[in-house]
Amino acid sequence: MTARYAIYFAPPTDAALARFGATWLGRDAETGARLARPAVEGFSDERLVSITETPRGYGFHATLAPPFRLAEGRAPGMLDEALAAFARDRQPFHAPPLRLATLDDFLALMLSGESTEMQVLEDDIIHTFHRFRAPPTPAEHIRRQRGTHTPRQEELLRQWGYPFVLDEFRFHMTLTCELDRSERRSLQEALERLTAPLCVQPLAVDGIVLFEQEDRGAPFRLARRYPFGTVVES
Q1: How far are the Cα atoms of 39, 102, 110, 112, 117 from residue 98, in angstroms, in the given order?
Q2: What is the pTM of this model?
Q3: How far is residue 79's CA from residue 20's CA, in Å, rounded to a whole number?
Q4: Looking at residues 169-198, what average pLDDT do you find?
Q5: Of the residues 26, 46, 136, 208, which has the fewest C-beta atoms closer than 10 A?
Q6: Domains in the chain, ordered, with CATH?
Q7: Are 67 and 143 in contact (CB under 8 A)?
């Protein structure tokens, strides 16, 4: 099977955070619609298209379980049922407000503080759904290897197929590709103004989503939302 799946956090479609993410990246991952992004002084539209090319392909999200092919004997319907059952048993929570930050030379929205609930959610997803993950191919393993990985990250890569899980998990919603320091600083100033209203209130986490990629050349799309057992009150 060439299709890949990923378990993400993505804000509700009508949330201001979702609208910002879709317009900034220029694509709504739920509808597939191409969107006009905001103008940024000092950056041409062509440059912004290039800067957001990689995150646009994945859609606006925070990774909880990174992309995977289904293991032998696992079917999409089985994954869907397991996700629905998992979500029904979870309770919504609020994480600390977001903040714009630099992570490994790219810009992303991250949590402004520690969140035990978010860490537990990610841990549980990694352990619960690992049985659905096919072993990485040699090419996939090479793609995810970096000379900058720590020994612990290499260990996680070998065991779980991804280096940034469990104790190395970093909640983030990617906004750009890797940038040099000068360009990153200039863009960060503009993005701080655009994201400031989104970084005030605690982040409501009331469900998870499944993203699907038909094949390596296709963008990821939001396939289904799985609300947690109780709706978060505003």
Answers
A1: 22, 13, 5, 5, 15
A2: 0.92
A3: 29
A4: 95
A5: 46
A6: 4-227 (3.90.1140.10)
A7: no
